[in-house]
Amino acid sequence: MPEQEHRDTMVETMMTALDEILQHGEPGNRRDTGLTLDSQLERDLGLDSLGRAELLVNVERRFSVQLPEELLSNADTPRDILDAVARLRGEQPESAGGRSGTEGLEDTEEDREHFQVPDFDTLQDALQWHNRQHPGRTYLHWIRSYDDVAPLTFGELHTGALRVANGLFQHDLRQRDTVALMLPTGHDYFHGFFGALYANGIPVPLYPPARASQLEEHLRRQADILNNAQVRVMITLPEARKLASLIKGMVPTLRHVVTPDELWTHPLERPVGGPGAGDVAFLQYTSGSTGHPKGVQLSHANLFANIRAANEVLRVDQDDVFVSWLPLYHDMGLIGTCLSSLWYGMHLVIMSPLLFLARPRYWLWAIHQFGGTLSPAPNFGYELCLRRLDDSDLEGLDLSSWRVAFNGAEAVSPDTVERFIERFRPYGFRPEAMAPVYGLAENCVALTFPAEPREPVIDEVDRDRFQEQGEARPAGAGAGNPLRFVSCGRPIPGHRIRIVDAGGEELPERHEGALQFTGPSATVGYFRNDEETAKLFEGDWLNTGDRGYIADGELYLTGRNKDLIVRAGRNLYPGEIEETVGKLENVRSGCVVAFATGMGERQGEKLVVVAETRSTDREVRDRLRDDIARIARESLGIDVDDVVIVRPRSVPKTTSGKLRRHEARLRYERGELERKPVPVWRQLARLARGSWPQQARRLVTGVGRWLYSGWAWVALVLVSVPVVALVNILPRLRWRWRLCHRAARLLALLTGTRLRVHGGDGLKQAPGGCVIVANHCSYIDAFVMTALAPFPIAFLAKAELRRFAVLRRFMDRIGVETIERASGEASVRGSRQIAERGRDRRLVFFAEGSFDAAPGLRPFHMGAFMTASLLREPIIPIALRGTRAKLPADRWNPRPGAVDVIVGEAIEPTGEDWASAIRLRDTTRRRLLEMTGEPDRLAW
Q: What does pTM read for this prediction?
């Protein structure tokens, strides 16, 4: 076939594949739409993630190729997809099922090991324990594509987290600062999450950047969260990193926007301690389906109580395998799968939500290949498998290992549950594996589970009795058009639920009302949001915002409080309307929203149904309006006041795919349901215009800091050069020292560094024979000590410094002692030699020996304490505050700021032996921990 003819055939095939997606089986309209290979998939054709995924699958089938998953987010036009096809022509597609390239992955002996995990206080404790016990054990496998699966061991996660923690400290992270994670599924996310924890920070999971057409809304929404959380550092993708100035302009507290590679540095020796079980582990922001996102404060104790209670029902052990495609910024994906797997040491298999959307078979084949026993999904995930998978995709599939298929995070459809069981029963899926559950971020994640494996329980209730009186009376045999609700099980151990009326009074079983809960997993409230926290609590009970009823002790959800529609004395819920309308031809499934607006004198609120369609034909749209009104009236007995047909991507949704009915109502009332796409450059211009004052202030501040840094180095050179020269010629040590003392004070004056001394008169009252022990935070610690002491003091320094001739000469002239710290024996021997050289000197030890960017007291060397014990001289503890912030480790840009020096009371030695030195060390360490206020890194 001639080359051009072959190309034309490919183009025609591509356009036909696109036609099928756009027209839903109504050919002949494509040429009228002006569709070309360069039409924008999102702007011109309205293809969201699901639509694009369907297009990729259709193209794969027509061209017999396996397209790269990146096209789901990177392809902007049909031409991009066709170019990818051209590059892949000649390759055979993966065999049916595409088993994710997991063949040949063998478990190690360490992976098969069984063990009993202790009760942990914090997530850091859990990872530390697994790293000590079995660092080579595989924690997770990350499925990146059909032939690319990346494992991650506990040891690798631990080391990576230590690297990221050190990188965060080098980017000015302070204790209990919040760290935003705007990253996709992958190893970087786990390193960032646990790196923030290891740095004693508070992770804030966020969803990755949206598409270009939603850039402005995405950034503004994230800015609201970042401002509420007062985020200081954000870890994100290089693409989002390019917008750092815009993001910083909207968030005054945000100091650094960095990529994982920019944080990747040498690891800390150990995590920074500090947090306890009752401290906040991370902030889980709600999806905002009924308003603005709120930051749920979840403590380590909350998390472990929830995981422990849920797993008491599930009875998990190390033989279980958790398979998940859920996003890691979602509570069900992060807590329900990843953190519970970490605690119990279960094998975790993860994949990107985009990979699942593009190829849902990957999820099922991962369960097959890895022997998955636990796997969650919202209802739409099961529905997607029903709609998108052919028998050819499932040939050879075995789901018999799947013992719990969690169905939660959104309303559970009885129809979906029944059809999924029926469809996948031939492939080993057991009906009792389907487990509708209920949970919410305010309770970490899980609240109700089926108490034991069983087929899903579907309750059919009398429609009229329920809608008019709120009573869930079972429908009689043969009753027409009953309401159907799925049981979500019973409360997990240690937790309670109840149903209350509008006055807060508890209702009996089978009476619908507002759902409340209480238990050890419950949050203490929303971060920096007292108003919403007050609404959350009613005494010891927390409001879920959901409605339901209890029957035989089990929970049946019926809807959201804010979504309730009252028509002629009947309570209606939009979920049933939306599901029924979504089944109509030409209506985009999952893209229908129903809500009430306004108040009529007689009929109450006005009922509005908004439905998306790809059809642009006026007759088709008019027919849809009539069909929606008819089906609502005939099937549900509901009269719809207004039906609005809109183009794709007009119905607002949360990041987790939930309908934002409140936002839809506001847009309807403003007449903005179908907003024209705004070019990216215009969105960026509007964002820049709104954030320029903050950007200007940041620019001025940044310039000022660089000018200060430059001047500080100039001042150091101007002062140090003559000092070094004079030290070499002055005949007396006291003269040389007084010169250094005055030079240090002059340098502090020139750089605007205020030295604030607390406790007596500083070092002036230190006895002639003593050992001074100070914490070590920065290179300027020695300058500070020199500026405080008008009389000679003898610094103890590492012997390695004597390798430099100029430095060796200067150290000798000002009386610096050096000690070998390669081993404990060498340190003790050096201490004895120093003691033998004479008494009545003021010896200064930085007992930690070195420093890094992380806060906290490192382990102490024994030299200072052996010396004090041998000389029977007191130890004077001195705490330095502010030097780390002024010149952090691995940074060479000094910053303005004061330095505080706290001089403690003398600590007398009790003997000359090793045991006495140990007691002296421990006493000094406790004193310095109190004086500095820093965490104890020895505890980790």
A: 0.81
Q: Using DSSP, state whether 844 is helix, strand or coil.
A: strand
Helix (H) or strand (E) holding 917: helix 914-932
Q: Could you tell me whether strands 565-567 and 570-572 are parallel, antiparallel, or unpaired per DSSP bridges?
A: antiparallel
Q: How far is CA 778 from the centre of its chain?
A: 31
What is the spatial distance between Cα 659 and Cα 403, in angstroms, rounded to a whole number?
30
The per-residue pLDDT for range 108-143, each reduced to its tens digit, is 667 778 888 898 999 999 999 999 999 999 999 999
Half-sphere exposure (Cβ direction) of 438: Cα atoms closer than 13 Å? 29
- The full set of domain ranges for the chain reads 3-88, 121-444, 564-674, 712-939
Reported as a single tens digit per residue, the pLDDT across 324-372 is: 999 998 888 899 999 999 999 999 999 998 889 888 999 999 999 999 9
- Is 171 in contact with 233 (CB distance < 8 Å)? yes
Q: 564-674: what CATH class? A: alpha beta
The CA distance from 739 to 25, in Å, is 91
Residues 315, 342: contact at Cβ < 8 Å? no
CATH of domain 121-444: 3.40.50.12780
Number of H helices, E strands in the chain: 33, 35
CA distances from 615 to 46, 48, 57, 384, 725 (A): 11, 15, 21, 22, 85
pLDDT digits (tens, 9 = 90+) for 80-117: 888 888 877 654 333 333 434 444 456 666 777 888 88
How big is the CA angle at 726 (ends 724 and 730), to the nearest 5 degrees? 130
CA dist 790 and 182 (Å) reads 52
Query: For tokens 């915002």, what's the residue?
Result: 545
For domain 3-88, the question of CATH label 1.10.1200.10 is answered with yes
Radius of gyration of the chain (CA): 33
